[in-house]
Automatic annotation (TrEMBL):
Domain of life: Archaea
Protein known as: Periplasmic binding protein
PROSITE patterns attached to this UniProt entry: DOCKERIN
GO biological process terms held by the UniProt record: polysaccharide catabolic process
The Dockerin domain, residue ranges: 42-106
Originating organism: Methanomassiliicoccus intestinalis (strain Issoire-Mx1)
């Protein structure tokens, strides 16, 4: 995990030249460039030569040192993605930093090199974790289209409260091949932020022409669970200093929670076992169960919380497809595995003003699992399906860790961190003070329902 976020000042120098605004981002940490780059790079933009969370002059220095034989070369040194590292990459990185580059290259969710043409003035969003990420960096001012799932919940989901949605329109579904290509093209968007090419807008890149296309920004906002990478990479691809500053605040927030979890888990001797499930339909004798596997985001949430997920043998390669991230079975699978904990993903996503919806999901699922250790020990938890992955994943992991390993986290206030998320990375409490009656308080959201905690 990159620790350079603390005490780093992001300076945005706006240079007006020829009617364009050039944005230069400076990392004034004073840290020398490293001779090599770690493998866990979060900012997966080509030009991030030194592998930190910034695209700045330090990368220019690192890149020049690569050409001089002083630093180790890595794939992100190939700024213009022409297959070789040379002086042209230095010049292209200078253009990116000056805001004059025609496009910015990055590594997308599927591990492919992709690019986003500059400038980006309008974007679309497909699937709610993407929407939450856009909200977290404050980029809703350029959001003009969403999929029908987001669009239909704009007036009903509390997490969108305070958000100006008057200019947002509906382009329909982006799931698999269910999109209408003509409708998508009629949006005239610069880019659509979405997920894996195996699940969202499947095959759409092949339908574009060089003269007429929309850049598909595919980032791990939930698939794979690498949310911080998605947030910081999106901000730089959009080329806006305010978005970038907000993204750095978000990943600093995530890193603080991660450290608290890691510190608490250092005092835990034995990991509790768990299965994370989504409930399908039920009959009098059987319940359809979808077990969340590696890559689903919900699986990763349980791992972050320090739990031993019994589905770890499934999808070991972490392939991002509907067939591999979810294992469809019934309650007998859970009964047979007999985990210490069962986490049920309830219907809906976002923040819940009360626990009614969560309790309904508990009542449906728990009656089929009465013989499990989890049921006998009141260790079946229900969360909204929208909080174990995406930008709220780390908060949920903290709640789980505080509940499962209560002694190790007795001095941690998970509600305080959720309040920080609500206030700083959503529009829910925009323009409200903590004394206003409409102010949403974290301890009143019913974030996770656990009968033993009621």
């Amino acid at each position: 995990m990159n620790n350079k976020l603390v005490a780093i000042i992001v300076v945005a120098i706006l240079v007006v030249a020829g009617g364009a605004i050039a944005v230069i981002y400076s990392n004034n940490s004073g840290t020398d460039n490293k001779p090599s780059v770690a493998s866990d790079i979060r900012l997966v933009v080509y030009g991030n030569a030194n592998g930190d969370d910034y695209l700045d002059n330090n990368d220019l220095t690192y890149l020049q040192n690569v050409l001089d034989g002083k630093n180790e070369e890595n794939k992100f040194c190939d700024t213009n993605c022409d297959g070789k590292t040379n002086q042209e990459d230095v010049e292209y990185l200078k253009a990116i930093l000056a805001g004059t580059a025609s496009e910015i290259y990055y590594e997308n969710l599927n591990g492919n090199i992709a690019s986003v043409r500059q400038p980006v003035n309008t974007i679309g969003a497909d699937y709610w974790p993407i929407m939450y990420g856009i909200m977290a960096i404050g980029a809703t001012d350029i959001l003009t289209w969403t999929d029908s799932g987001i669009y239909n919940s704009l007036s009903t989901n509390d997490i969108y409260r305070g958000l100006d949605t008057s200019n947002i329109r509906n382009f329909g579904s982006g799931f698999h091949e269910g999109y209408d290509f003509e409708t998508i093209m009629s949006t005239n968007l610069d880019a659509i932020v979405c997920g894996s090419e195996d699940i969202y807008f499947v095959g759409i890149e092949d339908k574009f022409s060089d003269e007429s296309k929309i850049d598909m920004i595919r980032l791990p906002f939930w698939e794979g669970g690498d949310v911080s990478s998605a947030v910081i990479t999106l901000a730089y691809l959009l080329g806006n200093s305010e978005y970038i500053e907000n993204a750095h605040k978000f990943i600093e927030f995530q890193d603080r929670i991660q450290k608290i979890i890691d510190d608490g888990l250092s005092n835990v001797d034995k990991k509790e076992t768990v299965l994370v499930t989504y409930l399908g339909s039920s009959t009098e004798s059987s319940l359809e169960v979808e077990v969340e596997c590696r890559g689903s985001g919900s699986y990763e949430c349980s791992i972050i919380a320090g739990m031993n997920n019994l589905a770890s043998y499934l999808n070991q390669e972490g392939k991002l497809s509907s067939d591999t991230m979810y294992y469809n079975t019934d309650q007998e699978y859970i009964i047979g595995k007999n985990p210490d904990w069962v986490i049920i993903l309830g219907s809906g996503s976002g923040l819940f003003p009360n626990e009614d919806k969560l309790k309904t999901s508990y009542d449906v699922g728990a009656k089929y699992l009465v013989t499990t250790s989890a049921a006998k020990n009141n260790q079946i938890a229900v969360s909204g399906s929208g909080i174990t992955s995406g930008t709220m994943q780390m908060n949920t992991a903290l709640y789980l860790a505080c509940t499962v390993y209560a002694d190790a986290f007795e001095n941690v206030d998970a509600d305080a961190f959720l309040q920080e998320y609500i206030d700083n990375f959503t529009s829910v409490n925009n323009g409200l003070s903590s004394t206003d009656s409409d102010y949403l308080k974290a301890d009143s959201t019913g974030f996770i329902y656990i009968p033993s905690k009621v």
